[in-house]
Amino acid sequence: MANLTIGDKEFFKGIGQIKFEGLESDNPLAYRWYDENRVVAGKTLKEHFKFSVAYWHSFNANGSDPFGGPTLNFAWDESSDVITRAKAKMDSAFEFITKLGMPYYCFHDVDVVDYGNDIVENERRLQTMVEYAKQKQAQSGVKLLWGTANVFSHQRYMNGASTNPDFQVLSHAGAQVKAALDATIALGGENYVFWGGREGYMTLLNTNMKREQEHLARFLHTAKDYARQQGFKGTFFIEPKPMEPTKHQYDYDCATVIGFLRQHDLLGDFKINIEVNHATLAGHTFQHELQVAADAGVLGSVDANRGDYQNGWDTDQFPNNLNELTEAMLIFLEAGGLQGGGVNFDAKIRRNSTDPADLFYAHIGGADTFARALITADNILQKSDFLKVREERYASFDGGKGKEYEQGKLTLEDLRAFAIEKGEPAVKSGRQEYLENLINRFI
């Protein structure tokens, strides 16, 4: 197995500051599109994206998969002492993030330091690392985009956390979320994420679904109220996922989450963190999920990755599909961007990507793809008839009876009378191929 780090103090030796060098550069360790100071649609790229490095995948993922063990060894994992090991990992993380020039990071509690089964000891460990992280943030200028608690990996959560049929398990989840919220607040985290990794069911035969969803809502209210009492001003995010590990998760997709939040009076405090790979697992496109969230006013944040179309599970590969992201950035720009969140690279290098530089290549490529897609989307909106084509499709609702219908002024009898008066409608093209070609032309 290859060693991803070299040396005792500098973990990524031989790799300096990653800079923007433009389209003429052949340097694989440089940005070609992501110029953080470039202004697009009134904001710099840095402001649009608020790029964030995922602590878990970048510094915890070891290359293992369901069919094989680790392929990556990390120098920061060598110590047998929990805190020493955690500090070494944090040193490597901030070295990487700083060299990459990313403004943010995000984490699960158990990414930062290993947890055991003692709640008080876990809290002590996390508090120790919070103090260490404060120093690292102050030294580097890197900020915390959001924190969260991993209440899905431990065996106690095999039947869920806040939806677990055993109240004792739910109480453990509460203790863990409290500590994660405290850590996020202490580190100036701008948001907090809830991902219900096992908040769902394996079979309805032993599940009271109504009661479990009510417990989930009560848990979110309880956590939200606690955070607000501690002075937290940020946004809470729900991250939808349809399945894996549970057969059916209660946060299946954006539409499901929006209905849940509305039903349980949570829309005022919660928005949605959309993951590309989760969207496709739900049978949607990333663009679809962005549009659903944007239309409901809850487009909060994005987990940037992609899936493997042949695999059918959450492969968390780095984003590189320019057509997909250009279509997504059209929605992004029309919605006015993200509300509170940023673009988090919730992605991991491949099992056979074992060189230190591979982690840099992955993030550089992801940032460049997002930047190029946003620039392309802005050009489409500014320099083509893209918006006009769509507007013309709905022109019949902009005046006359169509407008009266939208205003709620027509009855069903009125509709019948209008249909008889006008006769059979003309067939009108949706011009799909034209629009697809238009996007390719600007790319």
Automatic annotation (TrEMBL):
EC top class, in one word?
isomerase
A GO BP annotation: D-xylose metabolic process
Q: What are its cofactors?
A: Mg(2+)
Localization in the cell: Cytoplasm
Keyword annotations for this protein, in alphabetical order, are: Carbohydrate metabolism, Cytoplasm, Isomerase, Magnesium, Metal-binding, Xylose metabolism
State how the cofactor is bound. Binds 2 magnesium ions per subunit.
| Record's GO cellular component terms | cytoplasm
What is this protein's record name? Xylose isomerase
Q: Which organism is it from?
A: Rufibacter radiotolerans
* The gene coding this protein: xylA
